[in-house]
């Protein structure tokens, strides 16, 4: 199984970073975290990385005249560290084409909503404001938009009566940790395929071969008593039994290109 050489960009607490570090340390993820970069001095995520023996850097966006030069500095640091895939784990900056061109189709983000719903900041409050009954989280490849890149995997959770932003965020964070680690594992297994846009205005599509990249669905039937771990356990079971390859409505498998 190939090892992913990861660079992780963070701005805050770094709980998703911790999920990655734990999975690597416990042998659940074939990856090495080569570098953690924060744009915020003193971000708690940097302490998490240091405790795990992972190199860290602070690259402040305030030290650069524009987004492009900031991104160029990030690229230089990641390349020097030998990074091949980049994970945005609570990184509160939009990336420019300068960055995305350096890691084409190899930048992954976790967003606390079922994309394309509720992009941008405070997705949990957006879900509450709209009165949705289900929400979740999405792992996707990053493009030049805000949480608009090709979807890789999603996990589903209920919005319960009496939820506020904090209780909903707490329910989602466990899903985020599990979904992000599982998706990175599927990428390390060489399952990721992309289908280029076939017409103007069409989107690139992503696909993970041999798995059902949706967690939590089975637990939704008992919505009043669902817990994050219960829903995940049932979702994981269904994922492991998926057929190896079924092009079906997505088109001939030869149309899908493996990401190097």
Automatic annotation (TrEMBL):
Residues that hold (6R)-10-formyltetrahydrofolate according to the record: 67, 92-95, 109
Bias (Basic and acidic residues) ranges: 251-260
Pathway(s) this gene product operates in, as recorded in its UniProt entry: Purine metabolism; IMP biosynthesis via de novo pathway; N(2)-formyl-N(1)-(5-phospho-D-ribosyl)glycinamide from N(1)-(5-phospho-D-ribosyl)glycinamide (10-formyl THF route): step 1/1
Region (Disordered): 232-260
CC per GO annotation: cytosol
UniProt: N(1)-(5-phospho-beta-D-ribosyl)glycinamide binding residues: 14-16
GO molecular function annotation: phosphoribosylglycinamide formyltransferase activity
Cited InterPro entries: Formyl_transf_N, Formyl_transf_N_sf, GART
Record-listed E.C. numbers: 2.1.2.2
Formyl transferase N-terminal domain span: 8-184
Family: Belongs to the GART family.
HAMAP family in alphabetical order: PurN
Protein's job: Catalyzes the transfer of a formyl group from 10-formyltetrahydrofolate to 5-phospho-ribosyl-glycinamide (GAR), producing 5-phospho-ribosyl-N-formylglycinamide (FGAR) and tetrahydrofolate.
Protein name: Phosphoribosylglycinamide formyltransferase
Organism of derivation: Chondromyces apiculatus DSM 436
Gene this chain is encoded by: purN
